[in-house]
Design brief:
Length: 389
């Protein structure tokens, strides 16, 4: 009997380029393997004990003789490499058409209605690093009060504003306006609020970031579990990624360690269903900034907290650990990378040492959860419950 699943997504912790990575400009990407090599190894004994190094294709990390968990790697079936598509696929949605991107900035047919709707001009409107755009336009933003609009290689419409110039709640309102406008052919995956503080030369983004995602186009495993009368606790940016759909309780977090703290807090409660966590710092703080040292230290910090999670689990709890894409901080690119993702499963009800090998879609996770909780199936994926239970 499995009563609850603690499902942790290590945002961007991919493990090697997919066969079609060349199409995405990501040949040679291997987030986990390349960080391991760049750091001359990592102190992640608990992840290794679960079987992280035993996963098919994980040639850089050491194997253990008797893994405590079940392990495998998952390929992405959908046409993309971003957070939304990755999480949606895990939850049972296949996205054959990628979300729109804007390498030349957003066209006038988007920007002009947006400016009219918010009642001001804007700054920027181009692809940029989140930290570099503040260096370039932060001072002008302080003088004019105009929000800074920018994008990246991902399908995002990002709006940066100093919290003393545009209060956070007003920034969220501006983002909601953008979200309503960005539909149809211009339906970007996410509108992202990027509040910051500080003075010229020392601007710093705050934890008040919010993502305003598209709503999933069909029911996900979150909806299926919720419709069964079970809990779906979304920790971190899970609520944002799914547009609030299928969530019974949302907890936003400050950083990875706050996410772990909140996870442990909810494990201690008497809930039944899903506790679904996204730990975003790997992606936002280290991957996109090509900080492989920070990335490695972040993996070590999570590993140090993993025993608290595992020891807090009840006898009928199981743990899933996976990722949603790659973001290799050792390559010249600062964008997401098209990679396999690792998968680990652990819990007293499960077998140990099961090698799930390479799975063809992230959606196998959602379909397995569907079988565990006996919900109607999601649209894609093949359950692996019979292999691990």
């Amino acid at each position: 009997m499995i009563k609850r699943i603690i499902w942790i997504v290590l945002d961007s912790v991919g493990m090697g380029a997919l066969p079609d990575a060349k199409k995405f400009g990501d040949e040679g990407s291997n987030t986990l393997g390349n960080v391991w090599k760049a750091m001359n190894g990592l102190e992640i004994p608990h992840l290794l004990e679960l079987g992280l190094g035993n996963i098919e294709g994980m040639v850089e990390l050491p194997k253990v003789a008797d893994p405590k968990g079940c392990f495998g790697r998952f390929a992405e079936m959908s046409n993309g490499k971003d957070t939304t598509i990755g999480h949606w696929e895990m939850a049972g949605i296949y996205s054959p058409i990628s979300f729109p991107t804007y390498p030349q900035g957003f066209p006038e047919e988007i920007i002009e209605p947006f400016k009219q709707a918010i009642g001001t001009d804007i700054l920027g409107n181009k692809p940029a690093s989140g930290t570099e755009i503040l260096k370039e336009l932060g001072e002008e933003h302080l003088k004019t009060g105009y929000p800074i609009v920018y994008t990246s290689a991902d399908s995002v419409f990002q709006i940066a504003a100093h919290e003393e110039v545009i209060p956070v709640e007003r920034l969220y309102e501006i983002c909601r306006i953008a979200r309503k406008l960005l539909q149809g052919d211009h339906a970007v995956a996410r509108v992202i609020a990027r509040p910051f503080i500080g003075q010229v030369g020392s601007f710093e983004r705050t934890a008040n970031r919010r993502d305003f995602s598209l709503t999933p186009k069909e029911p996900t495993i979150l909806d299926r579990v919720k419709d069964q009368g079970l809990d779906v606790i979304g920790i971190g940016k899970i609520e944002d990624i799914f547009g609030g759909q299928g969530i019974t309780k949302a907890i936003h977090t400050l950083d990875n360690m706050d996410g772990v703290d909140q996870t442990i807090r909810w494990i201690q409660k008497d809930t039944q269903g899903l506790i679904f966590i996204n730990l975003v710092d790997f992606d936002s703080k280290w991957g996109h900034r090509n900080d492989y040292i920070g990335y490695g230290r972040g993996l070590e910090a999570f590993d140090q907290r993993l025993p608290e999670i595992m020891q807090g689990m009840k006898d009928d709890d199981i743990l899933f650990i996976t990722a949603d894409h790659g973001c290799d901080p050792t390559t010249p690119s600062t964008d997401h990378s098209r990679e396999y993702v690792p998968f680990l499963a652990y819990g007293k009800p499960l077998k140990k040492g099961v090698d799930l090998k390479t799975r063809t879609t992230f959606a196998d996770i959602g379909q397995t959860i569907s079988q565990i909780f006996q919900t109607p199936p999601v649209s894609y994926g093949t359950s692996f419950l019979s292999e691990i239970f």
